[in-house]
Fold:
Amino acid sequence: MNDRPILSVTGLSARVADEDPDILKGVNLAIRPGEIHAIMGPNGSGKSTLAKVISGHPGYEATAGAVVYQGEDLLEMEPDERAQAGVFIAFQYPVAIPGVSIANFLRTALQARLEDGEELDLFEFQELLMERMELLQMDPSFVQRSLNDGFSGGEKKRNEILQMAVLNPTLAVMDETDSGLDIDALKVVAHGVNALKAENPAMSVLLITHYQRMLNYITPDVVHVMVKGRIVESGGPEVALGLEEQGYEKYRRAQVA
Amino acid sequence: MAPPRERAARALNRDAVLETGLADPAWLKARREEAWDLYVATPLPSTRSEEWRYTDVGRLLPLDGLEPNLEGAGGAPDGDLVPGVGGPSRGTVPDGLLRTMAHDPASSGRVVDVDGHVVSVELDAALAAQGVVLCSLREAARSGDPVVEELLATRAVPASEGKFPALNAALWTDGVFLRVPKGVRLDEPIRLSRWVSRPGTATFTRILIVAEEFSQVSFVDEITSPDFESTTLANTAVELFSRGGAQVQYVSLQRMGRGGFYLATQRTLAERDSTLDTLNVALGGSVGRVDLNARLLGPGANSDMLGLYFGDEDQHFDFNTSQDHVAPDAHSDLLYKGALDGSARGVFRGIIRVHEGAQRTDAYQTNRNLILSDDAVATSLPNLEIGADDVRCSHGATVGQLDAESLFYLMSRGLDREQAERLVVLGFLGEVLDRLPLGGVTEKVTRAIRAKLRHLHG
Ligand SMILES: Nc1ncnc2c1ncn2[C@@H]1O[C@H](COP(=O)(O)OP(=O)(O)O)[C@@H](O)[C@H]1O
Ligand SMILES: [Mg+2]
Structure:
């Protein structure tokens, strides 16, 4: 595989826009094409903040460091430009948008990628949508519902992954996709992600999770541990297994010391 | 038939009343003259009155300069139209109107009205055979149908209702009479397609619908026009009666061009166990004012009252609604949603009145506004007046901006800001249409909203 990182985060500090203090305090991370990285860490350690900074959420701002995606300064790009460039975030808490159906929205999103004057082939779109829903074992009527409106926690997560499957990103950040999914749903989603990965081996994944559970089904190349806004350890899958046994206690102690 | 007078000499005056009523039966002539007297005696609503506080009609509507549209299309006199026969022909129906009508799906019947004069009426032959009456209101009034004499401008929108109802009762030129006999159900809507062509004129139209016991009918009243250089009034009085167990839906699609001043008075009278739903869609014109009063007259009566408005540039929409729960055990549910861009203004003023003895009333009222620009303004004045103790009522109003989280979420999937805004606005307004899925209406309104959204933020 190519050695040049698709995403490199260096010395990234970030905070809620205009609000001290920094939540991220110098994060370093490099993901190469096709790699799967996991970030684990206790609640409140800054995992979602990292995901949101990568997505371009206007509520957060970088105060130091850089995020380079495919050789470009990601922090300078608008959220839609990032998406157009292949960045996808499966959010931990996706918002509900009443009246906007999933199908309509995805059609618009795909159309938005085309050159001016080019029209999305609606038949092909329908086929793709059906195929992706089948992959994720979703009912076809699902896409007629309004985005996340009245969805259960599990439905929201599946909806995020459905979007990911349709938009076919180059870099997918999955923020706690596993929470809210029961074990059967988790297996379906993990299977879906693996299938996408098989289809597009160059897709890189940053998998944010609180638990080892998800990593039983999606095998990471690298596991990072984030505590209090810093990555305190990086290693292979064994890091995750160690966490499962000992928890985050040792990192917490190390930080206090 | 009097010789047509010089156009320039025509104005909203007693002569016009006499001329309009020339071929009318005596009772109607008398009603017109009485209405004119009331009009003259009634002061123009001023912004000092609660109900007109935000619409300065004296400033916005140059009543003295308006010319009544007394003649039919092309100056042809009225009276030759045979109800139930003949479809719209290209000769009499303007292209703009034909384009609007081309998008309509199946209808049980249709009426075409140009400048306040019905030019064609079509009704499904099977329905006509079952006794459904669909015709020019003018014809109906002259034909001696006792129902028309009984209900025209009497119980629903009498001249005594106010300055404009009086003016309409005096000067109306034509409109629609629809009567659905007991137990007859129409599968498809009846569509009225109205077109106003002449700038600086005033058009006075009435719609009278009587749905007898356990009948069912939906009626779509669409008005369109070109843009006008000078203020052009389309005044409408809508009288809707649903008898016991009947189901009626009335939809008003206001899609006039700029310069259009749409002024409608709508009254719905729902008897026992009947349903009388309304949907007011305001997209066009420069000013739109709708006075809607829903009366729940019998136990089990139900009215869903829906409204959708989308203003841009300097459009001004004003809705004044009331839900009168006269009988106990009735239900009404109002939802008006509006989006305002440019320097548009939206006004919603609504009141739920639970009359004494109207126990177990269920009445709801919600108005939601989405402000899309710094200069747009929404005013929302919900109100309750409760004269019974065992009721369930609620009212709520919101005025908000586009939700930043929603926009961000859509943008994070690759939509640019404008695309994201369009989707959110369409979704916001679409909730209203979802509540009243009526053949062709949702598609048509959605298309019109999309067209307006292409010019979001000017
Ligand atoms: N929008 C916000 N406003 C205020 N505090 C925030 C906001 N986002 C994150 N935080 C704070 O930053 C810290 C990290 O949060 P987060 O990134 O969500 O952690 P994680 O995803 O690891 O649980 C927490 O203390 C959280 O309360
Ligand atoms: Mg989180």
